[in-house]
Please model this.
Amino acid sequence: MANFLGSSGTSEVALKKLAWPVPTLSIQGPANRLTTHSASLRLKAFAKLPNTGCVSDSDLASARMSFQWSEPSGLYSGSLSGTSKNPRMLNLPARALTAGQNYTFEVLGWLTDDPTVNNTAHVVVEVQPEDLVPRISGRCVAGTDLGEGCHIAIKLIMSFARSGRMIRSKLTFICFVAFF
Model:
């Protein structure tokens, strides 16, 4: 090597190549995802054993792979194992992720017979805030005749998606029917 001042030097780097090629691993869809607190999340890993001349196809045909999901940043505190019967799938229920956070989910795939032959893939999931969603349910408690008051008990439930908290309030209204 030589730099622009004319000085030169040498350097050696030793590389060690695996005798067995590593599998290609990816997660279906774009590398960056958008979701909301009220939506469920489903991620699917795809693995492809390499097509190469240095290992016979019969050796690769019998190879089995294992998978493990993780969230390296530590923001997600729930379990990532057993969310699906298929270990390539990660299924998180609605309200499992907090709005305003970015989660990085990573899948590690390895040859079951030799865990040192492995690869990883990751996806970034941005959980966006949602609008406030009121849900109202009520019933008439007493009085149904004309001119008689109908007391309606209403439960008002508001979900703040940013924090994932639910606020429950009970309001009582008195309605009168009047004809003019």
Remarks:
- Residues 24-128 form a domain with the Immunoglobulin-like fold (CATH 2.60.40.10).
